[in-house]
Amino acid sequence: MRSLFGGSDSTSSPRGNDLGRVPRHSSGWKELMKHLQTQDSLRILDIGPTSSTNINYITSLGHSIYMASVVEEASKPEWLTPGEAGEEPSFNVERFLESNLNFSGRMFDVVIFWDTADYLPEPLIAPVLSRIHKVLQPGGLMLAFFHQTTSPDTFFCRYHLTDTDVVEMQRAGNYPLVNVFNNRKIENMLSEFSNYRFFLAKDSLREVIITR
């Protein structure tokens, strides 16, 4: 987790073999980009692998950005508490949130959640979304992606923003896709938020703009 308010970063190399970027049209990003281009001095939370492209683009608009790569962190065994004899280990949710999503009272105007929920262990999904709801300003916006199907060609990606309606996807690790949610499940997951809008996509990703 890294605070990057107008700073620079050193982006780590992806662990996948594919180092190239794949362009993808994103109606959700197009909508959110309009908001970013017409507002001043917003605080942005990017939940995903660090992208220097995103940092440079967001700060060039006069906004500040904070990064939190929770999928990578959630894959580490240190958050598991051993169970009793014959029982599965349990995920220490509170310790994870305190270590990775503790923003010290800082509030955000925009959250870019990407497809994070699809890669999180089930015990983390509701608590992570609840924490984001807590730190998002009333009326603040969140962009989220959700996979509609599983496929051998689905990889965990670093998403790079552009100044068009295209988002560039770059393989960023070998984390398995563990969740595929239908629309009703997504709506239930977002029940704390005041509004959400689904965008149609030609590929296997649903896009949602959510309002706090």
Helix content: 25-40%
CATH topology: Rossmann fold
CATH level-two architecture = 3-Layer(aba) Sandwich
- Could you describe the largest sheet, including whether it forms a barrel? 7 strands, mixed
Overall outline: globular
Radius of gyration: 17 Å
* Beta-strand segment tally: 12
Average pLDDT number: 88
CATH hierarchy class name: Alpha Beta
- Beta-strand residue percentage: 25-35%
Q: How many discrete structural domains?
A: 1
Tally the helices.
6
Strand order of the largest sheet: 1-4-3-7-8-12-11
Topology:
Blueprint: E1 2-4, E2 22-25, H1 27-38, E3 43-46, H2 52-60, E4 64-67, H3 70-74, E5 80-81, E6 90-91, H4 93-100, E7 108-114, H5 122-135, E8 136-147, E9 156-160, E10 166-173, H6 183-189, E11 195-199, E12 205-211
Parallel strand pairs: 3-4, 3-7, 7-8
Antiparallel strand pairs: 1-4, 2-10, 5-6, 8-12, 9-10, 11-12
